[in-house]
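Form P-L/3: holo structure prediction, ligand S-adenosylmethionine.
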Amino acid sequence: MTDRSAEIRRAIGRDWEETGYYDDAESDAWMEPFWHPRSPFLAMFQQLELSRTIELACGRGRHAARILDQAGELTLVDYAASNIEICQRRFAGRSHLRFIVNRGHDLPGCPDASYTAVYCYDAMVHFELLDVIAYLAEIRRVLRPGGRALLHVSNNMQNPGGFYQSNTHWRNFGSLDVVRHVADRFGLQSLEHKLLDWCGVPQLDGLILLERR
Ligand SMILES: C[S@@+](CC[C@H](N)C(=O)[O-])C[C@H]1O[C@@H](n2cnc3c(N)ncnc32)[C@H](O)[C@@H]1O
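OUTPUT (holo model):
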């Protein structure tokens, strides 16, 4: 990790603490890409085994609320303490949930080789590439052999070295193929991957289902 990347991570983190995003995020229109019956997200999500699951960058819990009753233990991880506090209040009394504030590139408190699934939606698309790579290593560490990760990533190769806010839909510099490559080297096999159009922009994002070998 570099000082510059860490500084940019902190700036990105601040952008997602208090924002109007959360007012719209739970509307049908914004949930639909992930949970519509014909959504590629749902088709891959249904290939996860949810007995011990991590949601990375959970925000204020809109996806967790959706899957809560299907999951065994569900661990919600986010860089923003404020979002984790909101999730703690939202899901108070649900004893199968755990809550973790992380350092923006790690899965602290998540034991090695223990989880059946990790998923991350609408968040890694904004992260620094070095953090995406660090998360791939962490995901490899925490998954059981045969455990799977479903990751929504940026496929924006414009503006290398730039700041994500200058890019379409604030997609950070990233590439589905780079994620596939790095994941392979960490021992995560791609079972399926797909380029996605986002808000009418062709192939802006990628979706990848990985399995720990
Ligand atoms: C656009 S919101 C999406 C939240 C949630 N995934 C959803 O779909 O509603 C981005 C989330 O990523 C979190 N975040 C930002 N940088 C992060 C990082 N480096 N590591 C983990 N979470 C981060 C923010 O706090 C926020 O919760």
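COMMENT: The longest helix spans residues 129-142.
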